[in-house]
Design brief:
It is a single chain. This protein is an alpha/beta fold. Helix content is about 35%, strand content about 25%. The chain is built from nine helices and eight strands. The strands form two sheets. It has a six-stranded mixed β-sheet with strand order 2-1-3-8-4-7, sandwiched between helices. It has a two-stranded parallel sheet with strand order 5-6. α2 links the parallel β1 and β2. This is Polar amino acid transport system substrate-binding protein. It comes from Neorhizobium huautlense. Keywords: Signal. InterPro entries: Solute-binding_3/MltF_N.
């Protein structure tokens, strides 16, 4: 996937990162931001942005989908590894080198429509079992808000399946994902807003600052020239504001 750099400056920045000749980008399945069909590459709003960022940088890379807990753990412990889309929370800030933002996400709590979960506020929601997936930032958010009954699954899809089978009462998800699921007829409904977050690429601290700068420069350009907005609209969503 080596492509000539767009500017001399970008070539120079990437060229200085001799240790970053190959990068692994780990991620989870989270349509429409990250998904993969039976054939073809990993796609989606976030994945397409990562691919566009790397087109201008002379570094080989690959993208792998895996459970989120493993994806973020690898990025923190394994050299030349980045994870996306990661929420830039205070707890994570110093643990990674960041390229921001791929997305701005409003996280909400949702319930299975017709399940009889009588909650309209976060305080009322604390009476119910809330599910999320391991090492997702919403796990920390729920803990900080002192939700007493948190059910942890391996992936977002497993948590959603539990919700639809009434094995849990509530779960968090981004407003964008909720809108897509709602359009597809998935029987969920919004209860309350949980948090707002900026999401981006979180890289192992061994990834050189030259590489991080080159990636951030390209992302900034994509935001300014409308490329990010075009990627959003290609997948049926309006870009963040």
């Amino acid at each position: 996937m080596k492509v000539p750099a767009l500017t001399f400056g970008l070539i120079f920045a990437a060229g200085q990162a001799v240790a970053d000749d190959t990068l692994l980008f780990t991620t989870e399945s989270y349509p429409p931001f990250i998904f993969q069909g039976a054939t073809g590459p990993v796609s989606g709003i976030s994945a397409d942005q990562v691919r566009a960022i790397m087109e201008g940088i002379d570094i080989d890379y690959r993208i792998e989908i895996m459970p989120w807990a493993r994806a973020i753990a690898l990025a923190e412990t394994q050299a030349a590894t980045c994870v996306f889309s990661a929420a830039q929370t205070p707890e994570r800030q110093a643990r990674f080198r960041w390229v921001m933002p791929l997305a701005k996400s409003q996280s909400i709590l949702v319930r299975h429509r017709g399940a009889g979960v009588a909650a309209q506020t976060l305080e009322e929601a604390k009476a119910f079992t809330v599910g999320t997936h391991r090492s997702d930032y919403t796990e920390t958010v729920l803990q900080k808000l002192k939700f007493p009954k948190i059910d942890i699954s391996s992936t977002f899809d497993v948590t959603l399946a539990k919700l639809l089978r009434d094995r849990i009462d509530l779960m968090p998800m981004s407003q964008d994902v909720y809108d897509q699921l709602h359009k597809r007829g998935v029987e969920i409904e919004k209860v309350a807003q949980l948090t707002d977050q900026h999401l981006g690429i979180a890289c192992n601290r061994s990834v050189s600052w030259q590489t991080i700068k080159a990636m951030q420069t390209k992302l900034n350009r994509m935001i300014a020239d409308g490329t990010q907005a075009k990627i959003y609209r290609t997948h049926g969503l309006e870009p963040p504001r």
